[in-house]
Amino acid sequence: MLADYGRFKGSRAANVEVHGGASLEEVVIPIISLTLKRQTEIIISIISDNSNWEELETMESFQTYILPIAEKIDDKRIQRVLPKMVKEVEDYIRSVESSEDKYQFSRRFAWRATCVDGSKHGISPLDYETESEYLAAIEDRKYGWRKYLAPSKLRFANPMDYETAEEFHAAVQEAFNRETRARSVNKHNTNDRNIYKFCKVELEEEPRNTYYYFPGSLSLCIGDQVIVPLGRDNKEA
Q: In terms of Cα–Cα distance, which of 16, 97, 5, 8 is closest to 60?
């Protein structure tokens, strides 16, 4: 194998560059090692002032393939500037994705193409970076009215049972009207002059507490055993 531009004996002349077989420049991979004579400040700039989508894929390749190699280089100067370099790449990619129209519904914003429609609540996915932020905005716009309800209304209805403020307030009004009518009926019954009898009931089990019940039309005598509802659960006793 010849390492220069010589030719084997007997070869004919040629008008092009000639190699005598496989030359070193074709089979040897050169390794270039650089050594600085003195310490100098290393400044690495990889971001252009005019970011645009045409450079985005190139920058992502740099992020995917070059930066991991740089992280393994045992050089204090490189390691010192590497965090700034990583941040510049990340900021560049995010900036292009956010500003270029072609990426508004793809890449990290792909969720915008399939997200729930928030237009009826006046919410647009283009105003939010993440789907979680977008959904939280819809939730707040849809159910935010629950935060500002007067405590006096909560005793009439549970706001969690209603989708809209209108439905809730209608339920509250209906419950209020029922209560008002009931009070009116009770007020008119204060003139009732009938005599009602109540029975004193003593439990057989300890503690032997005493309760009073209205027997209605039952005819009872002292000493009769009865079964009565007891407590909030109306447990038989």
A: 97
- The three-class DSSP label of residue 111 is helix
The SS3 assignment for 135 reads helix
Residue 105 domain-assigned (yes or no): no
Q: How far apart are CA 149 and CA 144, in angstroms?
A: 10
127 occurs within a structural domain = no
CA quadruple 205, 211, 214, 219: dihedral sign: positive
Tens digit of each residue's pLDDT (9 = 90 or more) over 207-233? 667 778 888 777 888 888 888 887 667
Give the structural domain span for 202: 198-237
Q: For the chain, which residues score pLDDT lower than 70?
A: 1-54, 185-192, 206-208, 231-232, 237
pLDDT in tens, 96-109: 888 888 888 888 88
> Which long-range contacts link 226-230 to residues 24+ away (Cβ below 8 Å)?
226/199, 226/201, 228/201, 230/203
Distance, in Å, from the CA atom of 71 to the CA atom of 78, rounded to the nearest integer, reads: 8
Please report whether residue 192 resides in a domain.
Answer: no
24 found inside a domain: no
Beta carbons of 212 and 219 less than 8 angstroms apart:
no
User: What is the count of structural domains for the chain?
Assistant: 2
